[in-house]
Write a structure and sequence with these properties.
Elements: H1 5-23, H2 26-40, E1 45-46, H3 48-59, H4 65-72, E2 78-81, E3 84-87, H5 96-123, H6 129-143, H7 153-162, H8 167-188, E4 201-205, H9 207-214, H10 219-239, E5 244-248, H11 250-267, H12 278-284, H13 290-306, E6 309-311, H14 330-339, H15 346-359, E7 372-375, H16 379-386, E8 399-400, H17 402-412, H18 428-456, H19 462-473, H20 487-495, H21 498-514, H22 517-593, H23 595-620, H24 626-644, H25 649-685
Parallel strand pairs: 4-5, 4-7, 5-6, 7-8
Antiparallel strand pairs: 1-3, 2-3
Helix pairs in contact: 1-2, 1-5, 1-6, 1-8, 2-3, 2-4, 7-18, 7-20, 8-17, 9-10, 10-17, 11-13, 11-22, 18-19, 18-20, 19-21, 19-22, 22-23, 22-24, 22-25
């Protein structure tokens, strides 16, 4: 039975959706599945455990016993006594469910057979049985909301988009997806609370989702974010108060402002457009000067305010009493960085830390009981949130994606499937486009980072890097830009090493160009200024990255410095207080003991600094300087705080130096560009 389970589950989910559209009640749907098993197994009496196992094993479900128990009450031919159910009247056999199940299984089997054929054609090889099993499992997970980013997710997405014009094909897959919506909502939501949202929840919206809302990441993501906002608004309107609040962290605000600063520099021709940023391209498009970019930023913040998305005002995340809720630790960070092959995960983990601090480390089973959650489109952050080292048993993930939240709220509000305006994110076609777009842009970003790394190592020149960036920039795609007409190109760009291919093409071009030195010289002359411009863009890109890192590090340092200054100020008060106390002790001693008795004591005390200075001079071979000692103490206190909060002060200082160096290089290149611009014109005059 286990071998047939993927087929059966897809078919069962489709049947679930069909029965729901007929009955409009999830318990009635479950009762139909129970009735089918009672008839098929010829059961006359059975326990709740028995019928639950029968339903779940036969249809691939995982429905809890308490839901089955409620559903069995819909079957009038059953009577429960002494812990068992008994069939007390004749059951009318219509075999309708079996027919629906068999029909869907047959159609799904046909889809998967066509998928095998498509993959064999694309990969130019014959699939063995083991590979077919993996592909079938991947397809079922893709449709049934399992892990979609696997070995075959790209080619499955391509297969779906190539067949999207076949009406029945799309209709069947969407029916399964809608069945998933009903099923997951049923299993993970308390049925007694369906249609009611009565808990307060804060959803912290990450930068990428904020850009979805602003429309900077394309139409598919924008529509999904609007569906999300409409659902939040419905909850709050029905309750008569803001039960669900939307906020973003200070780090998100800083990231947004740095992003728009770079956009201004691009419009002013001081920066090059990043190869991997679709949002940046949409922001700078249509902007003639800096004021246009500033206007877009103002409109963006107005959009957030209109949708009641405000900046978080909580400012005690770094306080000592919250340290016990921190997830970040040197050992954990090192292990996670090794697991995900990333050099620095602190920024990703920091937002998860904030969520855990607000939750006070509580582990809740229900999503709406979780108090707060991070809504993000960052795949790495989502992976970290799901990691067993970060997520404790039964705890709701610290971070979730847009589809998860929409799914939970849609079912919780009992919206059903007949309502107009079913969220587009539930569409299998949209899902396929999002998967391919995500993978393609991730691949471009990876190649972009590899190109920069090669440049840093000195393996490629600035001219080569500039050319690669131009080529990569043309390969990014929004989800809505991916369709059956360009699907083959998209797959090629995902699966092949496009950067290596580009390098090979450039080498071929050079070899051909060498056959005609005069032609090569003309090409070099005509493109010399463009090359210098691209050099400047590369340098500006690095400057942007460095400035962005520096600004974020500066913000962290400022928060830590507040704590350091507070500690130093406290220490100063303690020292001054001790001096004042010592002064009063001496004065009182003089009055009480008399000057004659106290004078020798004061004389001996006065010798202590001299002895200390001599000892210090002998040991350290240098004189004691109180000012230097205080400065050293401040430095030790600062370093202790920096180390405790894992802030790399040396890296912060190095960033400042690199920024100055890059700025100097850019100025030199600008002068070179200006001189090159004048040279051709002089030549023409002659």
């Amino acid at each position: 039975m286990a071998k047939k389970l993927p087929y059966k589950k897809l078919a069962s989910l489709a049947v679930f959706r069909e029965l729901y559209s007929e009955n409009k009640d999830v318990y009635s749907v479950i009762s139909e599945f129970a009735k089918d098993r009672i008839i098929s197994k010829a059961l006359h009496s059975f326990t709740l455990v028995t019928i639950t196992e029968e339903i779940n094993s036969c249809y691939g479900f995982d429905i809890p016993e308490y839901i089955i128990k409620t559903s069995l009450k819909r079957l009038t031919f059953l009577n429960r006594s002494q812990g068992k159910y008994h069939v007390e009247s004749e059951i009318q056999e219509d075999f309708l469910l079996q027919k629906k199940q068999e029909d869907n299984q047959k159609y799904n089997r046909g889809i998967i057979d066509n998928l095998y054929t498509y993959i064999e054609k694309e990969c130019v090889k014959k699939l063995d049985n083991n590979e077919k099993k993996v592909i079938m499992k991947s397809f079922c997970e893709f449709i049934a909301d399992g892990e979609v980013y696997n070995k075959y997710s790209d080619i499955i997405s391509a297969f779906i988009l190539l067949n999207q014009d076949k009406g029945e094909f799309t209709e069947r897959l969407d029916k399964i997806k809608e069945g998933v919506l009903l099923y997951t909502g049923l299993v993970f939501t308390d049925p007694s609370k369906i249609g009611l949202w009565d808990k307060e929840l804060i959803i912290f919206v990450d930068t990428e989702i904020l850009f979805h809302i602003g429309g900077f990441n394309g139409e598919v993501f924008h529509k999904a974010s609007i569906d999300f906002l409409n659902l939040i608004n419905e909850i709050n309107v029905k309750s008569g108060k803001e039960l669900v609040k939307l906020k973003y962290f200070e780090e998100n605000k800083k990231e947004i402002e740095v992003f728009f600063d770079v956009a201004e520099n691009i419009v002013d021709k001081r920066n090059g457009l990043r190869a991997t940023s679709v949002a940046m391209e949409n922001i700078v498009n249509g902007c003639k000067n800096k004021s246009d970019v500033a206007l877009k930023l103002s409109d963006f913040y107005s959009c957030l305010k209109t949708n009641k998305i405000y900046k978080d005002t909580k400012n005690d995340y770094f306080e000592e009493y919250n340290h016990k809720y921190n997830i970040i630790g040197p050992e954990l960070l090192c292990e996670l960085e090794s697991t995900y092959n990333c050099e620095d995960l602190r920024d990703n983990m920091r937002l998860l830390d904030y969520i855990n601090i607000i939750r006070k480390g509580r582990a809740e089973f229900e999503f709406e009981d979780s108090k707060c959650v991070l809504l993000t489109g960052n795949r790495l952050t989502l992976k970290l949130a799901k990691n067993p080292l970060v997520r404790t048993e039964y705890r709701q993930n610290l971070a979730v994606d847009l589809e998860f939240v929409i799914n939970k709220i849609w079912f919780k509000l009992n919206k059903g499937l007949s309502s107009k305006g079913l969220p587009n994110i539930f569409s299998v076609i949209s899902k396929a486009q999002i998967v391919l777009s995500t993978h393609l842009n991730d691949r471009v970003k990876k190649n972009y980072e590899e190109a920069k790394k090669e440049y840093n190592l000195g393996n490629v020149t600035e001219e080569q890097l500039s050319a690669r960036i131009i080529d990569l920039r043309q390969k990014t795609k929004l989800p809505e830009e991916i369709n059956k007409d360009n699907i083959e190109v998209v797959l090629d760009n995902i699966n092949e090493d496009t950067l290596q291919n580009f390098c090979e093409e450039q080498e071929l071009f050079k070899r051909k160009a060498k056959k005609n030195e005069d032609e090569l010289e003309k090409v070099k002359t005509s493109h010399s200024i463009q090359i210098i411009i691209e050099k400047i863009k590369v340098k500006q890109e690095y400057l942007y990255n460095m400035q962005e890192q520096y600004d974020l590090e500066k913000m962290k340092k400022e928060k830590i410095d507040i704590k350091i200054n507070r500690r130093i100020k406290t220490l100063k008060f303690v020292i001054i207080g001790l001096c004042i106390i010592l002064y009063f002790v001496i004065v009182l001693s003089c009055f009480k003991l008399g000057w004659c008795k106290i004078e020798p004591i004061l004389f001996l005390l006065g010798l202590i600094p001299s002895f200390f200075t001599i000892i210090f001079l002998v040991i350290k071979e240098k004189t004691f300087n109180p000012k230097r000692a205080i400065k050293s103490l401040k430095g030790k206190i600062s370093n202790r705080f920096y180390n405790k909060l894992m802030f790399d002060i040396d890296n912060y200082k190095n960033l400042s130096g690199k920024i100055d160096s890059l700025s100097f290089d850019i100025q030199a290149l600008e002068k070179e560009k200006n001189s090159q611009t004048l040279t051709p014109s002089c030549g023409l005059a002659k």
